[in-house]
Amino acid sequence: MNYHIAPLFCRPWTLNGMSPRLIESHYEHNYGAALNRLNSVTSELEALDVKTTPAQVISRLSREQTTLLNSTLLHELYFASLGGDGRTLSDTIAGALARDFGSVDRWRHEFIALAEALTGDSGWILLTWLPRDGRLINHSASDHAESIAGGIPILALDMYEHAYHIEYGANTTAYIAAFMRNIHWGAVEARYTDAIKVSPPRSLDQPEFKDVPSITPEEVQEMLSSGKRVQIIDTRPRHYSTRAQDIVEGAVWRDPERIEEWMASLSKDEPVVTFCVYGFHIGCQSAAALRKAGFDARYMAGGHYAWKAIKGPVKLFA
Ligand SMILES: [Fe+2]
User: Fold this and answer.
1) How many Å lie between the centroid of ligand 1 and the Cα of residue 190?
2) Ligand 1 centroid vs 213 CA: distance in angstroms?
3) How many angstroms does the Cα of residue 150 sit away from the middle of ligand 1?
4) Measured distance CA(241)–CA(262) in Å, rounded
5) What is the mean pLDDT of residues 153-172?
6) By the 8 A CB rule, do 277 and 240 touch?
7) Tens digits of per-residue pLDDT, 220-263?
8) Chain segment 295-304, per-residue pLDDT in tens
9) Which candidate, 131, 142, 262, 278, has a CA 20 to 30 Å from the CA of 78?
10) What spacing in Å lies between the alpha carbon of 180 and ligand 1's midpoint?
11) Distance 155 CA to ligand 1 centre (A)
C-alpha cells in the first residue's frame, strides 16, 4: 500500500502570526518526510518473508510504521485545524465544549496548559471525541503515539520544535497563542459533527434477557452508601459457591435452584438486586423469576467479578 500526500488544508497567506515560510517548511520537510519514510517502511515490511524474518525485525518495522502513520495523520489534522480566526465558535461546538469541560474558557485553559507543559519536550495536544463515553477530551500524545483507543481527534496542536522554532525560537507561549488565534472552528465543528455519528463500541448483547432491567455495580454502591435499603442476593450456582472465598459485603447467598423456596422471605417493598459470577445467566434468570413474582428486581451487570473489579467491599464467604 502506498500512502498519498494530502494537499495543505489551510491557506498559509491568511494565517495570523504564522508565516507561509513556517507552514511551507513544516509541510515539506516534516509532513513530507514522514510520508516518504512511511511509504519506504511500508514497502520494506510488505517485502519481508514473514516466515523466515526474525520477529524482532518485523516488530521494529511495524512500530516504525505506526509512528510514521500517526505522524502523517496528525500533521494532516494540524494543517486542517488552522485557517480561522480562533474566536468564532458556533453554538454546536461551543455547547459541546461547555458540556464536556464546564465552559469554552475552561476548555481553552486546559488545552493551553497541556501545550505549555510540553515546552522543551515534543508531542501533540489533541481534542478528541470518544464514542464510548460520548464526550470530548483533551490529551497530549508523545512520539506521535499514545492516542486514545477508539477516539477521533478533531483538533491538533503540533508541539514539536520544527512547528515553531524558525519563527518563535524557544518561545512556545507565543507559538501556542498564535495557534489558538488561528483555529478554524468551522472545520473543527465539521469534524465533530462527523465524529459523533460514530457508534460507540458494542456492549454485551444478551437478547434473551433484554426485558430484564440491570443495574451497574457503581449504582449498587451508590444505593448502599446513600443508605437506601436494598436486598442484595448472591445467586452464584451452588457448585461455584462451595469453592468461593468471598461474597459481596451486604449480600446474602441463596441457591438459585431453590428460588421458589426462598423468594417468600424477601420484601416486595424494597428493591432486589441479584447477581452471579460474571453476570451472564443465573443472575438474570433469578431477577426475571423474581420480577414475575412481583418483586422490584434487577440483575447486577458484570456480576461478582465486576463488583470486585471496582473494589466493591467483600467479606469472607463462610
Ligand atoms: Fe510537525
Assistant:
1) 23
2) 50
3) 23
4) 17
5) 95
6) yes
7) 999 999 999 999 999 999 888 788 899 999 999 999 999 999 99
8) 999 999 999 9
9) 131
10) 16
11) 14
Which cell numbers hold the place of 102? 464546564
Averaged pLDDT of the chain: 95
Q: CA dihedral in degrees (235, 240, 244, 247; nearest 10)? A: -10
Taken in order of first residue, the domains within the chain and their CATH numbers are 12-195 (3.55.40.20), 207-316 (3.40.250.10)
pLDDT at residue number 203: 87
- What is the H or E stretch that residue 59 is in? helix 55-79
Q: Give the predicted TM-score (pTM) of the model.
A: 0.88
34-63 as b/e: b if 16+ CB within 10 A: bbebbbebbeebeeeeeeeeeeeeeeebee
CA of 9 relative to ligand 1 center, distance in Å = 15
State whether the Cα torsion 116-113-130-210 is positive or negative.
positive
Rounded to the nearest angstrom, the distance between the alpha carbon of 237 and the centre of ligand 1 is 58
Cell matching residue 161: 520544535
Ligand 1: centre distance to CA 25 (Å): 10
- For the record, the C-alpha cell of 285 comes out as 434468570
- Give the pLDDT mean for 128-146: 93
Distance 123 CA to ligand 1 centre (A): 9
Tens-place pLDDT, residues 190-220: 999 999 999 999 988 888 998 999 999 999 9
Grid cell at residue 197 = 455519528
Q: What's the 93 CA to ligand 1 centre distance in angstroms? A: 26
Q: In 3D, which of 314, 239, 305 has the Cα closest to residue 278?
A: 305
